[in-house]
Amino acid sequence: MRTKPAFLRFLRSLGSLGLLSLLPALLPTPVLAQESALSFQATELAPGLYMLEGVGGFTGGNLGLLTGKDGVVLIDDGLPPLTAKLLAAIGELTEDPVEFLINTHVHGDHIGGNEAFAKKGATIVAHDNLRHRLLSDGITTPAGDVSAPEDALPVVTFSDSVTFHLNGHEAFVFHVERAHTDGDAVIHFRTANVIHAGDLMFNGLFPFIDLDSGGSVEGYIAGQERLLALTDEQTKIIPGHGPLADHKDLKAAVAMLKDSYARVRSLVEAGQTEEEILAANPLADYHEDWNWSFITTERMTKTLIRALTGE
Ligand SMILES: [Zn+2]
Questions:
Q1: Residue 305, helix vs strand vs coil
Q2: What is the pLDDT of residues 220-253, one digit of tens each?
Q3: Cα–ligand 1 centroid distance for 61 (angstroms)
Q4: Which of 81, 89, 243, 298 has its CA 20 to 30 A from that of 59?
C-alpha cells in the first residue's frame, strides 16, 4: 500500500465529493478553520525553484515557485481561504512580491487565489481558453456561481506556448490540447529538468479528466506521453495532486490509464451497458493503488465509458 498524502486522508474524511472545481464551495470556511494546522511546505527542486504543497489537510493543487533577482513567478495559487497562509509561506522564501502568476488550468483549487494575487500586483498568465472559460462560466463560491472578478482574469494569454527567461531558468510554458480541460498549461523548466504538470498528473491517484470543461481521455493520454518524452531518470515532476513525482511515476500513470481505457473499450465494443461494465469492474486490480475518495474506481470507469460512448 502506498503512503497517501495528508490531503487524501482529509478528503476521505469528508466522504464522496462533487466536482473538484466545487471544492471551494464544499470546503466552507468553518471546515478550513478547524484545520488550523493547515500550512504549506516548500521543497527546493533546483536553485530558487520550489514545490509548495499543503500539509495538515487539503489546500488545493500543488504549487510551483521560482524566486531570484529577476522576479518571482508563482504557478497556481490554491484555494481562496488559504491565500494568507500561502503568502506567509512564500514570504519565508523571498521578500519580493509575486510578479508573474501562471495558471495551469481553470479549476478553483488551482486558481482560487487569482484575484488576491492580482490585487497585489501579479500579472496572470494562462492559456486563451482558460480566460474564455472564466468569462463564460464564472467561478464557484459558497454562495453559488458568480461572474469571475476582473482581477481574477489572466491578462496575458497564449495559444500554444510562451517562454520565461528569469533567474537563470528557462521556463517553457506550453498548451496540451483537450486533456484535463481545454485550457491546460504545463511548465517545463528545461535547464533545471523540472516539470510542473498541473492536473495532467495525479501521482498515484486515478486522474480527474474533466469532460465537461473540454478535457478528453485520449488528449490526456497524449499529453502524458508528451510529458514522458521530456523526462529522464533525473526529472522532477510537480503533479497537480499527490507527492513529488518522477519519470517512473509518470510512466506508471500513463500505463495504468492506457490499459484501463483499453479494458473499458473492449467491453463497450462488446456491446455491454454501463451497468454491466460497472458490475464487471474491469479496473478492480488497480483499485488498491489508485482509488481515492474523489476519483473512485467506479467514477474512473464511468469517465472512460462516457469518453467512449459520448454520453
Ligand atoms: Zn483540476
A1: helix
A2: 999 999 999 999 999 999 999 999 999 999 999 9
A3: 8
A4: 298
Note whether 297 and 291 are within 8 A (CB).
Answer: yes
Encoded amino acid at 125, one letter: V
Tens of pLDDT, residues 74-88: 999 999 889 999 999
Question: Residue type for 90, please?
Answer: I
pLDDT in tens, 25-80: 444 444 454 557 799 999 999 999 999 999 998 899 999 999 999 999 999 999 98
The reported pLDDT for the residue numbered 141 is 81
User: 3-state class of 163 per DSSP?
Assistant: strand
| pLDDT over 60 (residue 210) | yes
Which residues make Cβ contacts (< 8 Å) with residue 68, sequence separation at least 6?
48, 166, 167, 168, 169
C-alpha radius of gyration, the chain, whole number: 19
Check whether 4 has a pLDDT greater than 50.
no
Q: pTM for the whole thing?
A: 0.89
Q: Is the dihedral of CA 198, 182, 228, 2 positive or negative?
A: positive
Q: 3-state class of 239 per DSSP? A: strand
C-alpha distances out from residue 140 to 12, 20, 73, 180, 232, Å: 22, 11, 25, 18, 38
Work out the average pLDDT over 263-284.
Answer: 98
Q: Which of 66, 129, 63 is nearest to 94 (CA)?
A: 66
Distance CA 113, CA 104 (A): 13
Question: Ligand 1 center to residue 60 CA distance, Å?
Answer: 9
250 closest CA partner among 219, 216, 288, 220: 220
What are the strands, taking DSSP E only, across the chain?
Answer: 39-46, 49-55, 63-66, 72-75, 98-102, 123-127, 139-141, 144-146, 156-158, 161-166, 169-176, 184-189, 194-202, 236-241
Distance 104 CA to ligand 1 centre (A): 8
**Number of residues written out for the chain:** 311
User: Which of 98, 112, 132, 5 is closest to 60 using CA atoms?
Assistant: 112
Residue 13 Cα, ligand 1 centroid: separation in angstroms?
20
